[in-house]
Design goal:
Elements: H1 2-23, H2 36-63, H3 67-77, H4 83-108, H5 113-131, H6 137-151, H7 155-165, H8 168-178, H9 180-200, H10 204-223, H11 236-239, H12 253-265, H13 267-298, H14 302-309, H15 311-330, H16 336-355, H17 361-389, H18 396-424, E1 426-432, H19 435-446, E2 466-472, H20 475-494
Antiparallel strand pairs: 1-2
Helix pairs in contact: 2-7, 2-9, 2-10, 3-9, 3-13, 4-6, 4-7, 4-18, 5-6, 5-10, 7-8, 7-18, 8-15, 8-17, 9-10, 9-14, 9-15, 13-14, 13-17, 13-18, 13-20, 15-17, 16-17, 16-20, 17-18, 18-20
Length: 505
Amino acid sequence: MISSRSERVARVENTSMNLLDYFKTGSDRPVKSDDPAVIRREFEWRRWSVFLSVTFGYAFFYVARINLAVVKKPLMDEGVFSASELGVIGSVLFIVYAFGKLFNGFLSDRANIQRFMSAALLCAAVVNFLLGFVEWFWAFVILWAINGWFQSIGSAPSVVALSQWFTKKEMGTRYGVWSVSHSIGQGATYVFTAVLVSAFGWRWGFWGPGLICAGVALLLFRTLADRPQTYGLPSVNVYKGEADVGKAASGSPASVGKSQLAVLKNPAIWILGFAGAANSITRYGVTNWGILFLQETKDYSLTGAGSVLAAFPIAAMAGSILGGYISDRFFGGRRNVPTLVMSIFTLLSLIGLAVFSTPNVTRDIALIAVFGFNMGGLVTYLGGLMAVDISSKKAAGAAMGVIGMFCYIGASAQEAISGVLIDAGKSVSTTVWSESAANLKASLQGLGLDLANVALPADSPVFDLKTSIVSYDFKWALMFWIGATAVALLLTLLVWKAKPAQDCD
């Protein structure tokens, strides 16, 4: 029995070690061929497969997270959760997400991206599907927090993969295009998830994304890749002729750890983290509460609000792509000037949304588009690219982890504070009519009589039915988001002279 028990413990330990080893990056293999054509053919195929996979794959992480924004009003209207409770739910996700970003960012520098990222999306998909069955507040909080942990794995592996397969001279443009994934995911969620919820109810706001993301996760298992060296290919710097063979990164644990420590010691990284946090307050304020804002302040329907807000991710895609390209092409990889300009236009668009309170589809789409374009660029710059610029290639995941932690601490604070501010502006108006009185009113109006100002005695028997209309004032929430944008702008000025680091590889 003792021997049998020992064997069982040993098997459990071996299984755990095998599981951890499964997610570790593979060992370097000797270069498989001396023929440059052979190397080029496989290298180009794999790196473009990786590029497309992380771009579209990461978009679906958003589909399994932004979906809560679409179902907020149905959940509130059905009395499942209040605005404050939804604020707590969103805040919990972002807290877990923030620290998960830091932890998983450091892991990503040592991970097999193919397996690590794919498994995370699959787990998030399963949790989302389960959420469609849950109405108890604390159960929803716990599951949404678990979703936040798996969600936190998405971005760092993406950027690590880009840094492994593309040089720093290529990163600005590639990172900008990858940032389009945010907008692809948001746009798909706002439109298609809104259609599902409108047609079948709020539960399909979780079931639909869960099923779709599970399929995408299985696809990523086939299309993503580990580091080039694990396939018998040279490092990307050697492949592109930007490093001597003898100076190519070894990727040893000691070398990676030293580079990660340098990230933590860099003051500019921390300033960028605070700027990213402030920017995330604005970004997630609009993306997570924007549909409710358009419904409540401008009287849009759910699908109408979703269609207007869909201008955000479409414009953000252009901002992300052009932001990375412009900074590479015209500013030599410096992001300070475009960051300042885009911060100013983001601020102006928010002020426009606050000032023009009456509904106007053309104007509202234009304001959302201006906001989206400039926020797309800012997410590219402040969401990680500027930090990656001033970090070693071997610590790209760590840099993304630190910035991500700050960004989502800001997002968490936003969610809780915005929920409270919106609840504080809650008002209830009551219309009292019985069914018989309502029918009488309709009949008399059909005869041409206007009863809008007719008052009946307070003790009239027709007053036996109350209809309550709940509305929310977004004034203080908008001021909160505008203030956060101003803070991000000011912090950006503190890292104006931060220079891109020379790759030590």
